[in-house]
Amino acid sequence: MFCPKCGNQCNDGANFCSRCSTRISGNVGGSDEQRVNQEPYRAAVYSQPQKHPGESSALTSLICGILGIFVLPIILSIIAIVQGNKAKRMGYDGGMATAGVVLGWIGLLLGILGVIFTIFYVIFIFSMMPELLICA
Ligand SMILES: [Zn+2]
Description:
Elements: H1 32-47, H2 55-70, H3 75-89, H4 95-135
């Protein structure tokens, strides 16, 4: 058999080429031609940039962080903080996770202030009730 990389003639039982040390893996798994055709395909699969496992958490964190400020504070903000910290624990060091956590805290703070403001507003309205009734 011949080495698929350098064309050197090797022993039929050999696992590696004697000239360039390329793996030729004996006679298992199809003809020489098939193995040669598989090589570029496998190389393409492995050379693709690997997506970091923490990246989806970081993205979720960022989206929830933004929506947490404008749409649904507190709940989405907490999700943003949790997901952002999860991404960091998984070793994702991109700015997306940090931004998600920061936005999450801002959303949480705004949400809590909003709740406090609403409670005081309701108390204020109720405290005005007797006077409103008298005026009416
Ligand atoms: Zn070779």
